[in-house]
Write a structure and sequence with these properties.
single chain; alpha/beta; 2 domains; 4-stranded antiparallel β-sheet; 3-stranded parallel β-sheet; 12 helices; globular
């Protein structure tokens, strides 16, 4: 499964070749939310909806064909971008942006045709601020959405407890985390709170110290909820909650029990990496996309924790072969 990014490097060859259909100078991102209080500027030029339509979506079609040439599936990052993107004017902060809408029916039609030609499954990353029409449209076209352990909650119950894996949606790709969220080890250690606090990303009108304390309490509560769910599922014995490796293996066993069509495992979780690959809301403050794995691909084959993970997923009927 290959990943289709939201955009291209504004200084790269793609941006130069596609300048007729890209809004150069403008960047896309996301408005402020609970995970990024300042909003996000991804530094990528957006498609111009008028030029896409005028050119018959040729550039978009060619991009999809290139991604699907050697893949059995494609994961559309920020799939809501087929409907609308948060445009940020030159020199402006992310919270000064606005949504610009696209012809989603046309974008989805091109995607469906190219995926059908390639015989590929489509996964739409529909996390975060997503309108109901997005998830409904994906389901209507038999595309998969995304379910992440941290977000899988019973929204109809008081206090919205974590949802047992058997109740996760079938038409989805399940994972413990994503590249924009804490790794399994990072979540257990509270690394996501520590790093954001050090970078000043948790401040609010109540004062930095108060905001950090509130975030830490929330992280502690979520960790306790996770451990309780693992124990309730019979995946974690009493006393094992202090053994990080045992908890991470249990989390993958939980993933294996999910009702989702696909399960995705991160190599960062296989090696116990506590740092998340990308920290939204940062550029140079954090080594985004520059965290090497501590093991080579050859070493991964013989790593004890990896062997445990594979055995766990195989026991759930997810992994086969060697």
């Amino acid at each position: 499964v290959h990943d289709l990014a939201v955009g291209v490097d504004p200084e790269g060859a793609d941006a130069w070749a596609l300048q007729d259909v890209l809004a150069t100078g403008v960047t896309v991102g996301a408005p402020p939310d609970a995970f990024s209080r300042r909003g996000q500027d991804w530094g990528l030029p957006p498609w111009r909806p008028d030029r896409l339509a005028a050119t018959g979506y040729a550039a978009y079609r060619q991009m999809l064909r290139a991604v699907l040439a050697h893949a059995d599936g494609v994961r559309i990052d920020h799939v809501a971008g087929l409907w609308r993107l948060w445009w940020i004017p030159p020199g402006s902060a992310p919270d000064r942006g606005t949504y610009v809408h696209y012809d989603a029916e046309a974008m989805l039609a091109v995607l469906a045709v190219e995926a059908h030609r390639a015989g590929a499954v489509v996964i739409g990353e529909d996390l975060g601020t997503v309108e109901p029409e997005v998830t409904e449209a994906l389901a209507a076209r038999r595309a998969l959405g995304c379910t992440v352990l941290w977000f899988a909650r019973d929204e109809d119950a008081p206090d919205q407890p974590m949802l047992p894996p058997a109740r996760w949606p079938e038409r989805a790709a399940a994972s413990i985390s994503t590249h924009d969220l804490p790794t399994a080890a990072g979540f257990l250690r509270g690394e996501h709170v520590r790093v954001r606090a050090e970078l000043g990303l948790l401040g609010d009108d109540l004062g930095d110290d108060t905001a950090v304390a509130a975030e830490q309490r929330r992280a502690d509560t979520e960790r306790a909820e996770l451990l309780e769910l693992l124990r309730a599922e019979g995946l974690l014995a009493d006393g094992e909650d202090q053994d990080e490796d045992a908890v991470v293996v249990a989390m993958h066993a939980l993933l294996g029990r999910s009702a989702c069509r696909l399960r995705l495992v991160s190599p960062y979780d296989l090696v116990g990496e506590a740092r998340q690959p990308n920290l939204p809301g940062t550029v140079d403050e954090y080594p985004n996309w520059r965290l090497p794995l501590p093991l080579t691909l050859e070493q991964l084959r013989t790593a004890p924790l990896v062997a445990q993970m594979v055995s766990t997923m195989r026991g759930a009927g997810i992994v086969g072969g060697q």
